[in-house]
Backbone:
């Protein structure tokens, strides 16, 4: 079981900006429509510029589609950002991300700091509870950290147990754990998954 979508599912969005935009809008990550921030009137989406522009002739103000989202204040195209984030989630070496995404080392470093901060912020939300009667919740574990140079494939960091609802909302939780045993897993489930949920996990064989 994996939380990270396969390359077969996401790869087609890495090199097609229109497809990437459509995917992000359908997933609710980027807005499909917005009222004008200046006058509250209707707007039109200008895909080529990734911006909304007010339809009113007396206003015609424009504002970025990215504003207030994960993509705010970012310079890379949407598809390339997806590609970079996907490789990071798969714990690819930085050198591979630079090569495959064709992005400079400074830019990659900046994005990785941002992504790690997002994960850190999510881990602070310890009161997150997901699931409910009849709702499927997939639970998995991963190790958040970085590979140590010249030490093979060793990864240093913290183990994280996470869960995701198989619903349109796709609500999630992620918590760091000090022990990888059955008692710890059960405590995480009791704390973050509502009673009546249907739990899917392949972690039991390792606990």
Residues:
């Amino acid at each position: 079981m994996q939380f990270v979508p396969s390359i077969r599912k996401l790869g087609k969005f890495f090199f097609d900006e229109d497809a990437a935009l459509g995917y992000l809008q359908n997933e609710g990550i980027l807005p499909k429509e917005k009222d004008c921030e200046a006058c509250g009137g209707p707007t039109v989406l200008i895909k080529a510029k990734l911006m909304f522009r007010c339809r009113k002739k007396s206003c015609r103000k424009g504002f970025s589609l990215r504003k207030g989202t994960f993509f705010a204040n970012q310079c890379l195209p949407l598809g390339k950002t997806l590609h970079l984030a996907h490789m990071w989630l798969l714990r690819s070496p930085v050198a591979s991300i630079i090569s495959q995404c064709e992005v400079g080392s400074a830019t990659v470093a900046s994005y990785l700091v941002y992504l790690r901060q997002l994960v850190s912020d999510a881990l602070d939300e310890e009161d997150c509870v997901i699931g409910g009667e009849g709702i499927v919740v997939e639970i998995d574990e991963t190790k958040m950290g970085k590979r140590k140079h010249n030490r093979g494939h060793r990864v240093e960091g913290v183990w994280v147990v996470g869960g995701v609802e198989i619903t349109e909302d796709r609500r999630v939780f992620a918590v760091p754990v000090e022990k990888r045993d059955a008692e710890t897993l059960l405590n995480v489930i009791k704390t973050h998954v509502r009673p009546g949920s249907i739990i899917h996990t392949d972690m039991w064989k390792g606990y």
Strands lie at 43-46, 51-54, 62-64, 136-147, 155-165, 172-177, 198-200.
